[in-house]
Design goal:
Layout: H1 4-15, E1 25-26, E2 34-40, E3 44-45, E4 51-54, H2 55-59, E5 64-69, E6 76-83, H3 84-91, E7 97-102, E8 107-111, E9 121-126, E10 129-130, E11 140-142, H4 154-159, E12 164-170
Parallel strand pairs: 1-3, 2-12
Antiparallel strand pairs: 2-4, 5-6, 6-9, 7-8, 7-12, 9-10, 9-11
């Protein structure tokens, strides 16, 4: 677990999004198992031209929690994670397209326009518990389907990738 000072420094360093990708800033490498690799048009890196994140690093970012039902689960569940908008800002992505890839190499395209307040999150908890690979984890892109009818469409459902382990920001 990261100490309080390391978390503050991580959040501060991830929040700097004004550096161009050509001038990427190095941040601390993850201390735990890498759950997400970010590449492409980003300004924050810690492994060459990519950013490796563990769960604690994701938890160090501003958290968003909401309750929603999904077409893949029974009933309403509470999801907690980092909003796609906060995620984009924290890695220094300003525009483009998110190419989100799962551990089985399945890839979806998520438009940058989805990275809005009240929009999707990269969830790392469901009902207060970490999600196993068997239960669509450890990371799952979840939209607040119940809060907006626009989120209840085949297009949006197709963007709700589970077992997420890579994101590439393309221009």
């Amino acid at each position: 677990m990261l100490s309080y000072v390391k978390k503050v420094l991580l959040v501060m360093s991830l929040a700097v999004a004004s550096v161009s990708p050509a001038m990427a800033q190095q941040i601390e490498a993850p201390s735990g198992d890498v759950v997400l690799t970010v590449s492409g048009a980003i300004s924050m890196t810690n492994d060459g031209d990519q950013l490796l994140l563990d769960v604690e690093m994701l938890k160090g970012l501003p958290a968003t929690t909401f309750e929603t039902s999904t077409i893949w689960t029974d009933g309403v569940h509470q999801f907690k994670g980092v909003s796609l908008a906060d995620f984009a800002a924290s890695v220094g992505a300003e525009a483009g397209l998110f190419l989100a890839t799962a551990i089985n190499d399945y890839t979806v395209e998520i438009p940058f326009s989805d990275a809005v307040a009240g929009g999707p999150i990269i969830a790392y908890l469901m009902d207060g518990e970490a999600m196993s690979v068997r239960d669509k984890g450890p990371l799952w892109v979840i939209y607040p389907y119940d809060s907006n009818s626009l989120y209840r469409s085949e297009v949006v459902y197709s963007r709700s990738i589970w077992q997420l382990d890579r994101v590439e920001i393309v221009q």
